[in-house]
Design a protein that fits this description.
The protein has a single domain, classed as TIM Barrel (Alpha-Beta Barrel). Helices cover 39% and strands 15% of the residues. It has helices spanning 5-16, 66-75, 94-106, 126-145, 163-184, 200-209, 230-237, 261-270, 287-301, and strands spanning 36-42, 80-82, 110-115, 149-152, 187-191, 216-221, 241-246, 249-250, 257-258, 274-279. The strands form 2 sheets. It has an 8-stranded parallel β-barrel with strand order 1-2-3-4-5-6-7-10, surrounded by 6 helices. It has a two-stranded antiparallel sheet with strand order 8-9. Helix 6 runs parallel beside helix 7 (230-237). 40% of the residues are buried.
Length: 307
């Protein structure tokens, strides 16, 4: 069929225009500009001193509070603090969330994110419903605090199930949660955290199965791969990272060794990462004595210098 000149012009212009495609969870995250890093510390770094979901019968009182962690981050001249969900009170109230938001703002800190210990591999039933409700609840809490991202887990394959079944349920759980997350403006970042995300291939199998959403990506955890070459696995997932979590140790073949923080930062730079580097300290040494040195190293690696 021949086109008239009037018909041809719009078609030609359309063909020459820059092609548009939707953002897909399976695509590396598109970013503008050079790599850019901000520094934060996860409250989990003080797990030996923070009480879990206080008050609760049988729990030790703890020697620190989340407010103390915030003060520590300000004293270390950080940009943000991750307020891990495990150390909130058993009953979280709007005034408590507002108080944390006010304290961080007053001290010039962002709440870089939060984290939950969910399991989306569970079969249909009350336990799975509780996991979905927990995720929805923490999306609301994150939105109230101004936290832009929640790092989530996939879970473990239940006994008697196949990994394929577990992956299918995990994908469904993420997609159901993303509907609410998008409404609230909170991103969900799936962490490489053992189970069905023990390897980069397993993690990205899930990422690629989730329906496209700009509110979903990967939580890059530098210490959680136990393969022969964890650095190679980190390179594989770095382009999908919404949030980056750094640890002092790495575990090739499951054997603990000191992490090459410089190499990990370079992996993120090569992927064009822009966002938070969140130190999560898990070593047995005194965090008050060791964390400042690790933060100084990270500041040097990203060009912040000593403060």
């Amino acid at each position: 069929m021949r086109l008239t000149r009037r018909q041809f012009l719009p078609v030609a212009l359309s063909a020459c225009a820059r092609p548009w495609r939707p953002i897909r969870a399976a695509d590396p995250i598109a970013r503008t500009g050079r790599p850019h890093f901000k520094l934060a510390l996860a409250a989990y770094s003080f797990h030996s001193r923070l009480p879990k979901n206080w008050p609760r019968a049988g729990e030790r009182a703890g020697t620190m509070s989340l407010e103390d962690v915030i003060d520590f981050c300000a004293a270390q001249d950080l940009d943000g603090v991750e307020l891990t969900s495990y150390y909130f009170p058993a009953e979280v109230t709007p005034p408590y969330l507002a108080a944390l938001k006010e304290q961080t703002f007053r001290l010039g800190l962002d709440i870089s994110g939060t984290a939950i210990g969910n399991d989306f591999c569970l079969p249909d039933g009350p336990e799975r419903d509780a996991q979905l409700a927990l995720t929805r609840q923490w999306i609301d809490y994150a939105a109230a605090m101004g936290a832009p991202v929640i790092r989530i887990f996939a879970g473990q394959t239940p006994r008697g199930d196949s990994e394929s079944q577990a992956v299918e349920r995990c994908v469904a759980g993420i997609e159901a949660s993303l509907e609410h997350a998008a409404e609230k403006g909170v991103a969900l970042a799936l962490e490489n955290h053992g189970g069905i995300t023990a390897t980069a291939d397993q993690l990205l199998r899930i990422v690629r199965a989730v329906q496209p959403s700009p509110w979903f990506g990967v939580n890059f955890d530098s210490g959680n791969f136990h393969s022969a070459d964890p650095y190679a696995e980190l390179e594989h997932i770095a382009p999908y990272a919404l949030n980056a979590q750094l640890k002092a140790s790495i575990a090739p073949e499951g054997r603990k060794a000191a992490a090459d923080l410089g190499r990990i930062v370079e992996i993120l730079k090569a992927a064009g990462y822009r966002g938070y580097l969140v130190l999560e300290y898990e070593e047995p040494d005194d965090p008050f004595e060791t964390i400042p040195g690790l933060l100084a190293t990270l500041k040097s690696l990203i060009g912040r210098g000593a403060s």
